[in-house]
# Entry
Amino acid sequence: MIEFRGVNKWFGALHVLRDITLSVEPREVVVVCGPSGSGKSTLIRCINGLEAINDGALVVDGQRLGDRTTNMTGLRAEIGFVFQAFNLYPHKTALENVTLAPIHVRKIPRAEAEASGREMLAKVGLADKFDTYPAELSGGQQQRVAIARCLCMRPKIMLFDEPTSALDPEMISEVLDVMVGVAEEGMTMMVVTHEMGFARKVAQRVVFMDAGAIVETGTPEEFFADPKTDRSRAFLSKILRH
Amino acid sequence: MIWFQLQSLVGSYPLALRGLGMTVALSGISLVLGTILGFALGVLRTSGSRLLSSAIGLWVDLIRGTPFLVQIFLIFFILPELGVELDAFTAGIIALTNLAACFICEIVAAGIRSVPTGQVEAALASGLSKWQRMRQVVLPQAMRVSLPPLVGQYVLLIKDSSVVSAIGLTDLTRVGWLVVQRVPNGLLVFAIVGIGYFIVCYPLILLARRLERRMSAAHGEVQL
# Structure
């Protein structure tokens, strides 16, 4: 579904992705973790073309990124992206947020889009917030709207860029619960997160990155019980200490 | 004396009304045209090619950096030399529209630049096309920032329209000049002219203030 083959990327002189080779199968859930600045956000932002790669090949849903024949707008419609800062449209209600792309990109009739939008918002526990503007929602609620906004497009892939990092602790679990639900329905997911409980529960693989390279890959059981490298041991001891 | 002057002023009210009508027509037409053109330029300025953007930027700076009176003279006296015959009204509309478009272009461009990158990324990630991103996500948010200065700019435009009297259009200001020849009391005549402009501008000033207050509300759409 997603295949990195020897991908490199530079921001000026900074080498942010080093020889990334990684393949994600359909229905697989992969958690990406690593210290800040290790390139994990850049890695998943490349998948829907928010960042361009400089070298190597990246094939998503059978289409090679950067090819002239690849329709990026069409491909992006198949990929949901959840941002750390939610990025809901502040001038639109929750329902308008989740129906905008279905109506304008998928060309679904408004009434139909609104019906499935309501259903999706109810599914993430926001049945009473259809007409509420983002500024009136808590962080956890906003992030759940953001997830519903992606799901309304019926995507093939969902990418999450530190979806709970901007949240107050008491709101993290409500968002993780929704994400677990999405994973259990068989969505192909790549999740940048430090929520190791989530990784244990639904991830098939954990990818550990440091300094722009993939240092270690393994099942959550292997990775948490027996990290293979010094860098992953040092990282885990820091985030699991408390 | 004053009584006699007032009487003859009242007698010139048809002329005054004509002048007011001319001022309103000139400002109204160029306000609408200038807004449309200014929006188009503002969008191109921020999302067109770099060459186009710099070309627009240069033109805007040129217009903002020269007196409006000079611009009007250039259009009215130079264009006919080049074979483009213009009546004074058309020349006035062109000059005012161009002036309005240049100021509005910068206001709209500033509004567009104020929309956070995350908004564009979210729209991009959901598969919206360039025009849909602009129409559905960027412009509505840019408008919240742009609307108060935009209305303020309209007020300036209405006042700038007084300059067109220099090419012989009988607008409110020129009516003042004509009347003052009959009623030799400049203070009185131009006080009335000033009140005429104020009556047209004041509602807009109030509107700008209301919009500014509404903008401080953190959510929702700007409703006119």
Q: What stands out?
A: The interface with chain B takes residues 48, 50, 73-74, 76-81, 83, 85, 87-91, 100-101, 104-105, 133-136, 149-150, 153 of chain A (CB under 8 Å). Residues 99 and 115 of chain A are 9 Å apart (CA to CA). Chain A has a mean pLDDT of 93. The longest helix of chain A spans residues 169-184.
